[in-house]
Amino acid sequence: MKNLLLCGGLLLASSAFSQVLTEDFEGLGGALPAGWVSGSTTPGSGDWITGTSTNANSAGFWPVPTHGSFAQVNDDACNCVLTAAYLTSPSMDFTGLTGVVLQYAFVDDLTYGGNPHLVQVSVNGGAWATVFTYVPGASPNIEWQDGLVSLGAATNGAADVKVRWKYDDAGAWATGLAIDDVVVKVPAQNDASITGVSLNRWALINTNTVLSALVTNVGGNAITSLTIDWNDGTSHSSVIPVNIAVGASATVAHPTNVTYATAVEKNIAVTITSVNSAADGDPSNNASSGLHNTLSQQTDKAVVIEEGTGTWCGWCPRGAVAMDYMTTTYPADFIGVAVHNGDPMTVTAYDAAAAFSGFPGANVDRSLLGVSVSQSLFEQYYNNRVNMGVPANVDGVVTGTGASVTVNASASFYTPVTGANFRLAVVIAENNVTGTTSGYNQTNYYAGGGQGAMGGYEALPDPVPAAQMVYDHVGRALLGGYAGQAGSVPATITDGTVANYTFTYTVPGTSNRANMYAVVMLIDNATGEIVNAKSTPLAAAGIASVETIGMNVYPNPASDNVNVAFEAAGDYTITITDMAGRVVSTNAFSNLSGAQNIAIPVAELMSGNYIVSVATEGASYNQVLVIR
């Protein structure tokens, strides 16, 4: 945390620009910095807080890219109307200063409605005056942006100036506002700030890659030229004509492309060395960097969309229609998984880790988080990502018969990666899922056609009875966990490295292996992003009928012991798994013959549903067991 309040006259005498206040909201543990004040229409639960994007997500905030710790407010956290939620700065002394500006980063998510945020000032305890109203783009933007606001002539020389941000959800189910990296200063006349570097992380060898600097004019003069150098050990400096107005931002492409003839990894430093052919008035914001890897072979990318849904959610048929469209239209490189919430198809660990703040919602490659759901949006997400470079091809080989499944997951790398932090994981999903209980009834707000056409749901009732519902893409299990299997990919990767990990899974008796598929994922554990994926059917020999061996499980429900009866001829293994596919009991028996009645202790198992599997060579027999 930094909070600098100094006499303006002193600063003017010693520097080209005058910095009055800085605040990065770090290290505060949820509290606001000293002197900062939250005001809200719902005090307490509707107040501004500080925290990371992880803290924000746990409070129901929208998912945003990592920006350290920042100030945030949202109506999801309090489940309330926030027509006015103010964050007010400490009092600042502008004595001797003129032309003071406010520079800050922000996310203003208007996906679900609400009014754009305001910046207001109060001079010497007077009324608040609006000096900036955010003007959003054509579509909702949930990425960090940079703001530069003139605080106005009324603040010139004033001894008591306060700035505040106003969030207004307009009574809608809006999401929130976040701000970070606040700077109040008198700008230098020539001052360009690099806010990022745009550079393909992964590119084929001998491919020309454009490097661009994301530049904001935070000075007092319009910028007509920049000297930008990118350096990978060799300097590539160029004077670039531009036209960037005061307060405006631009993407400035460097005329020298990035190209390598072999598979390499480079950390490229990018620096603005002059502005308008003169020294930059504030060189502290002139540098950034970007990682770039070249690939010795072409790789193919699949796009994974995990959609948050539930049978209780009346708008969720929109997600089912979008998933079906994408699967049919892009079968080779689109992979969809429906992550259920609050219904009989819910996998608790999957639902919790996906952390959807609204339903239907979607995570795209776990890079775009909590985004909106529709057929057109899914296609847009897919088109924006399917041609991205990736460091490795991913594959999965499924073996095993009956209920026993082995997935050999692999990732073949075609570039060196130092300090790699990748993991392999598998998601098991199932199509053609049906149920008979009321929990399988699908709430349907599209019934009657008042909300327009929706893939046939407009002709169905609300709710759609379970007997008429078939659910596809249903996420059934996480192998290796949501974040992937630790140690499944080495930390040092060279061109040609192949990482392998073998996962095992037992198909529950309530599922049909012929309708299931394994999604092998390569996950960047540093960011949580799915780097690449491959979908592989589980269809194999199928699950043998229990009638074949006269299998019976009793008593059912059970509490202390359960008896497993069957006709045997050979070696058998009796396995009990929970509904997440975890083995909780296993017993092997050799040279069995004739009628068997084997008692298995279950007193230590928690209440719930389990699958009892009797497996022999080439076959597996299953029944559901209830523990009370």
Detailed description of the structure:
The protein has 628 residues and is mostly beta strands. The strands form eight sheets. Strands 1, 3, 4, 6, 9 and 11 form a six-stranded antiparallel beta sheet that branches. A five-stranded antiparallel beta sheet has the order 2-5-10-7-8, with no helix packed on it. It is globular, with a radius of gyration of 29 Å.
Name of the top-level CATH class of the largest domain: Mainly Beta
Distance between the termini: 53 Å
Average pLDDT = 89
CATH homology-level superfamily of the largest domain: Immunoglobulins
Helix content: under 10%
What is the rounded Rg? 29 Å
Helix and strand content put the structural class at: mainly beta
Tell me about the biggest sheet?
A: 6 strands, antiparallel
Shape: globular
CATH architecture identity of the largest domain: Sandwich
What is the count of β-strands? 35
What ranges have pLDDT less than 50 throughout 5 or more consecutive residues?
4-16, 541-545
Total discrete domains: 4
What is the third-level CATH name, the topology of the largest domain? Immunoglobulin-like
Q: How much beta, percentage-wise?
A: 35-45%
Number of helices: 6
Features:
globular, Jelly Rolls, 35 strands, 4 domains, 8% helix, mainly beta, Immunoglobulin-like, 6-stranded antiparallel sheet, single chain, 628 residues, 5-stranded antiparallel sheet
